[in-house]
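Table 4 source record.
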Amino acid sequence: MEKHVIPSEEPPDQPSIWVQLKHAIKGTDEDYTRIGLKKAIFLLAVPMILELVMESTFAVVDIYFVGKLGSSAVATVGLTETYLFLLYSIGMGLAMAVTAIIARRTGEKEKDEASVSAVQAIILAILVSVPFALLGIFYSKEMLILMGADAWAADHGYRYTQWMLGGNAVIMLLFVINSIYRGAGDAAIAMRILWIANGINILLDPLLIFGWGSVPALGIEGAAIATTIGRGVGVLVQFWLLFKGGKHIKVLRRHIYWHGKMMLNIVRTSLGGIGQMVISMSSWIFIMRILADFGSESVAGATIAVRILLFTMMPAWGLSNAAATLVGQNLGAGQPARAESAVWKTGTYNMIFLLCVSVIYFIYANSLMGLFTSETKVIQVGSSWLRILSYSFFVYGWWMVSAQAFNGAGDTVTPTKINFVFFWLIQIPLAYGLAIWLDWGHVGVFWAIFYSETSVGLFTLWLFSKGSWKRVKV
């Protein structure tokens, strides 16, 4: 029988904010199904925010150095990312399922089952990476041409694509193993992993792109090599810490075996998440293909704007991930009312943060774009995107949290259906219609994104309020 527990107010003897911040960064063994909700959100959100800020810092630094090679190089990164987004969709969909399952087992105090589930997830991640690696190694040039790449990208940029897709296993494992840590409540470990991985990448980026001393200048290929090395080191550290043991999860030798039933449960739960992300990410491929018709400057402007968006919105995603963990663990502990309360609190914090970001975008869009390129057309394209999307951020914050609440509960199917309608049936046709038929150009694409994402946010929040996610079993 469900226990409907409403969280009590924080006790009066709470430690100072600085002490809690130290605990959040260092890691804590607190039970997130029992402590005050504000404290739970803080302890989970801080490392998740710092983790994602570091990830987005890497993206911004990467495009900063690549931007010095010209708009064709930036466009190559953007076109490669359209394929990587398909990979990310599978990795993120799998990660959603893993977070939900690990969080539910942790809330149920079934630590051995959580560890065995973690092993099955890692095996799946490795298996999924193989076909992407083969495509990237042997067909990278053809894949860029298919996306409308210019001559420079086809002749020189394909090496970037070859490295990024060929070494995609490190991307998949980073996604999945960090989702294991987040689901268990070891968000501080996931944070430190990305600090290491992206810190190495940031140091290697300028060295390998431009060369120094006896190190040759590898150009855009150097950016991909730096990324692969940095993430590869991060994966090695992930494995070492997973077997050493964190505050909430540890894999022992007896946990390492093929468990068909658990594997099937992860696959079944992840299908919705994968479908959810495939739909949203593949819609991005169509969007980039439409933009490619307006030239490399349009693709480059959109690519830089997306990097800026990723950097500034990572705190919001960190808060949303914290909500997913709290929903999963509290449902596992039989406390659906506490899970729901966590979402409403987190959504409020998210909305306030993104409203502040929207003001910055509206006022300083040109200045932000100018940090990465001096090309007037590229700045114009990226600035228009930042300003148009800033209008939707009031709703966007709630959408992020409510969608993650469904995922944290293990209901990955509902957001998939929502994404199908709003991204494939609305966003893509609307973008094509406004940009091509009405001749609005790249601005038409950006307004189509605004309309579709504002609508999906309002609908998802309304559906969350209905409460069907509380009855999902994983």
